[in-house]
Write a structure and sequence with these properties.
This is Squalene/phytoene synthase. The protein is mostly helical.
Length: 278
C-alpha cells in the first residue's frame, strides 16, 4: 500500500479504534500493519451508528459495505483506501466472510431502539460485534488455537464486548436505546430520571459488569502465558480491567462517558505484552 494511503488507514484506526490501534503497535512487524488495517475497519464500522441519526441512512452506508464484501472478487478496488486495504487483507489471509456479515448485522441493530430481549440475545450481539473480530485477528496473526485457547478467545471477546456496551451507554441512552439485557426489568429510557427506572437500570448495569468480570476470570483461570500470535490478537482485552474499574467509579454513569487515561491505556497494554497475560 502506498504510504499516503497507509497513513489514512492509520489515522482512522488511531481516531476510531484506539484500543486496537495501540495494541497493534506492539505486535510483530510481520503483521503489525495488517492489524492496524483491521482496527481501522472495525473503528469505521462502529462509527457509522454514531454519525447517522436516521436508521435508513445508516442502512444505506452499511449496504455499501455489504456490496463491497459481496463483490470483492469482481471489484477488488473501489477508490476507498480503507475498503481497498481491507479487501486485499481478506484475500491474502483468506479471512472468513461470515464474520464481516455478522458484524454488519450487529451494527444494523445499533440504529434501532428495540430492547434487548435477554441475556442470550445480548451475547449473540456481542459475539457478532466482538468475537468475530477477535477471530479475524487470529486469522491475521496465524495463531493456532487449542480448545483451551479458543475458550479464552471467546471469554475475552465477550468480556470486551460487554465492556464496550457499558462504555457506550450514555450515547445509546441519548439515542433512545438501552443496549443491555433487561429480561425481567421494564426500563423506559425516556424516564431514567425517575427512581424506579434508574434503579432498574442500575441493576441491569451491575449484572453486565459482573458478566464481564466472570468472562475475564475465565480468561485468567489457568494463569498461563499466551503465545505471541494469540496475544497479539487478544491484546485489546488487556484493557477490560481498567475499564471496569473506571465504570464502577463513575456515579453519573447515565450521562457521563467513561474513559481511561491515555497513559493507563498504554501502560496496561505494554504490561500485558511483557507478561504475555491478559
Amino acid at each position: 500500500m502506498e504510504s499516503d494511503l497507509l497513513q489514512h488507514v492509520r489515522d482512522t484506526a488511531r481516531t476510531y479504534a484506539p484500543d486496537r490501534y495501540l495494541a497493534a503497535l506492539l505486535a510483530p512487524k510481520s503483521y503489525r500493519d495488517d492489524l492496524i488495517i483491521l482496527a481501522a475497519f472495525l473503528g469505521e464500522m462502529e462509527r457509522i451508528p454514531k454519525i447517522v441519526r436516521e436508521p435508513a441512512l445508516g442502512e444505506i452506508r452499511l449496504q455499501w459495505w455489504r456490496d463491497w464484501l459481496e463483490n470483492l472478487e469482481t471489484r477488488p478496488t473501489t477508490g476507498n483506501p480503507l475498503a481497498d486495504a481491507m479487501g486485499e487483507l481478506i484475500g491474502r489471509h483468506n479471512l472468513p466472510r461470515k464474520f464481516f456479515a455478522d458484524l454488519f448485522d450487529a451494527r444494523t441493530e445499533d440504529f434501532y431502539a428495540d430492547p434487548v430481549s435477554g441475556p442470550k440475545a445480548f451475547m449473540h450481539y456481542v459475539d457478532r460485534s466482538e468475537t468475530g473480530p477477535f477471530r479475524l485477528a487470529t486469522g491475521i496473526t496465524g495463531a493456532h488455537l487449542s480448545p483451551a485457547d479458543d475458550a479464552k478467545l471467546c471469554a475475552a471477546a465477550r468480556a470486551y464486548g460487554t465492556v464496550r456496551c457499558l462504555l457506550h451507554l450514555p450515547f445509546a441512552i441519548s439515542r433512545g436505546r438501552w443496549p443491555l439485557p433487561a429480561e425481567y426489568l421494564d426500563i423506559d429510557v425516556t424516564r431514567l430520571g425517575e427512581a424506579d427506572n434508574k434503579l432498574a437500570a442500575a441493576r441491569t448495569r451491575n449484572v453486565a459488569i459482573e458478566i464481564a468480570r466472570d468472562e475475564l476470570a475465565h480468561v485468567r483461570a489457568d494463569n498461563t502465558r499466551l503465545s505471541r500470535d494469540l496475544l497479539s490478537a487478544l491484546l485489546p482485552a488487556a484493557l477490560i480491567e481498567p475499564y471496569l474499574q473506571a465504570l464502577q467509579r463513575e456515579d453519573n454513569w447515565l450521562q457521563t462517558p467513561v474513559e481511561i487515561s491515555p497513559l493507563t491505556r498504554v501502560w496496561r497494554l505494554w504490561r500485558a505484552w511483557q507478561r504475555a497475560k491478559l
